[in-house]
Amino acid sequence: MRFLVLILFSSLLPLSCDRSTNEMASLDPFEQNVKLGRGINLGNTLEGPAEGDWGMEIQEEWFSLVKGAGFNSIRIPIRWSAHTFNEAPYTIDEAFFEQIDWVIEQALLNNLMVIINMHHYKELFVAPAQETQKFLSIWGQISLRYKDQPREVLFEILNEPNGALTAELWNELLPKALDKIRATNQNRTVVIGAAEWGGVPGLLKLDIPEDENLIVTVHYYQPFQFTHQGAGWVKADADAWLGTTWDGAPEEVAAVENHFQTIVDWGKERNVPINIGEFGAFSKADSESRARWTEAIVRFALENNMSYHYWEFASGFGIFNPNTGAWDQELLRALTETE
Q1: Cα–Cα distance list, 207 to 168, 239, 270, 291 (Å)
Q2: Are 267 and 273 contacting, i.e. CB atoms less than 8 angstroms apart?
Q3: Which pick of 193, 232, 256, 312 has the fewest CB atoms within 10 Å?
Q4: Which residues have a catalytic role annotated?
Q5: pTM for this model (two decimals)
């Protein structure tokens, strides 16, 4: 089936490419951000060491399910570094590239905008200097391969820079990566995030490169002891947080509102659109609290003209059960019906 879809899509590609080249000449990132609208991450799939290692493989029907549920876009976390040779010229595995081709095509066939990012590049976070050339080479290859994709395809340069890739070093590396993209994608909308795990503290240290077609993404998981209670990968004893609720009390709502106001003010000062690229509460929190918190985040995002991508579709934070084919109706309502 994937092979047949690739053939059919390829037969339409020259027309799509010509049209997209003209359409992208005058892209407005604020308009692009509006079109991203309500979105979701297809997480725990392609950002694992290999697809399926974390129990999830992207299914063709997911795209129509996401679109039918009321979402406008998807974000695809991708661990490119695990599928790239370690020696120059750092070639990306062709079979993996074809897998990403298929994901992009499925999104477009279902009228979903799609963000492809670089996720879990752990080596870069440990040794930035040693990994810089590989990082830039990967973006050069991605950009060349997808230069003729339509405006509905966005690039996100790096998910959650952290560790030895400090805010200062990230501010030096970010424009170099953007230059790699602009060499072949002059008008592509590019998403950039901050160091220190992409949250509000890192945002305040982010220097924006001079560019007219950027969206800034922020990740939001506060209060952390609520959103990550029982999460086994957290270094702290997350089991000690089990039972933490989010009741929507005035002080809880005010804390979120204050964080969002910081983001809003930062964006307005720099005249850039904002995307909440990740937010979510782990499934070990009670369902009612998860729904209340999610609704609050969505409301603040919409009130401030932000697009958003919930983390994530069908795993530990998910809103869809792939085994039963059932949605978490309260979470789905919060994400798609909140005004």
Answers
A1: 9, 37, 10, 34
A2: yes
A3: 232
A4: 160, 278
A5: 0.92
